[in-house]
Amino acid sequence: MEENIKRYYPLGKKTLAMLVLRRSFFVIFMLIFLFVGLFYLQYVSSEYTNLALYLFFGYFVILLFFSLISFFLGWLEYTRYEIVLGDKNLKMQRGLIAVEQVGIPYRYIQDIKIERSLIAQIIGVSDVMVTISGSEQQEIHPGEKHPSDIHKIILPALEEKIAKQIQEIILNRAQVQQFDVSGKM
Description:
Elements: E1 6-8, H1 13-22, H2 25-40, H3 49-79, E2 82-85, E3 89-94, E4 100-105, E5 109-115, H4 118-123, E6 125-132, E7 139-140, E8 152-159, H5 160-174
Parallel strand pairs: 7-8
Antiparallel strand pairs: 1-2, 2-3, 3-4, 5-6, 6-8
Helix pairs in contact: 1-3, 2-3
């Protein structure tokens, strides 16, 4: 039985916010379209004003419906997202309806990096890129079909503090040396 197990579940409110945001781009586009339509409402003739208001109300109800679906899917993904760092391997499970588990023995881990997009920096989350032994450079996300020669696994939308902890633990357990730009160890 493994003694030194570190379990990350749940992963925090920022992770939930980022997972919901990643599922909400269609809703954001619909919201922008709604505001543009409200601006042009002043140019609608008075005889069609009631019809335009009913259309906007219907559009708003549809927007609310898609917002709830986006939030529910992000929340569902969040509740099924777990990372476990054992003595001998990294385990991750993730999915919406069907949950897929990925396990990587530390001896196959070559490097681990933290990447942050602009939106991720604003929210305070990071993606952790785990490079493992393989022949071709490919990025995979659990839940996607992938060939047997995996090269990178992405642990998305982790709070910055958790991402740094995971990076440190994996580097220590995999006995991988990482150098910063200044050449220090």
